Amino acid sequence: MRYIRYFFLGALALVLISVALANRELVNLQLLPTGLSDLLGIQHQISLPLFIVIFGGVIAGLLVGFVWEWLREHKHRAEAARKGTEVRQLQRELKRTQKERDKDKDEVLAILDQAS
């Protein structure tokens, strides 16, 4: 299994390197569309190699997806935390009830009752 993972990572590295080498030309990225930037007076642009733009877009998409999924699963995490708290409370209550039940019994019989 380890070799399959190494093979996959090596193949992925080769693909990423070939994409980077094939897309080295510079592109201009603008903050706003031309009409809107003329209207607002904000004309900010930067020149980057195309492969950085591609990889940056992929990374930004992954981050947005991770954050979106984390927010979507909040209700499930909250429910799990609430149930965990309830389980701990019920376990404490069970121990307290067993101690009350076994306080008049012989110590050996109380241990045998707890084991079953």
TrEMBL record:
The chain crosses the membrane at residues 46-68. Residues 80-107 form a coiled coil. Keywords: Coiled coil, Membrane, Transmembrane, Transmembrane helix. This is Lipopolysaccharide assembly protein A domain-containing protein. It comes from Thalassococcus halodurans.
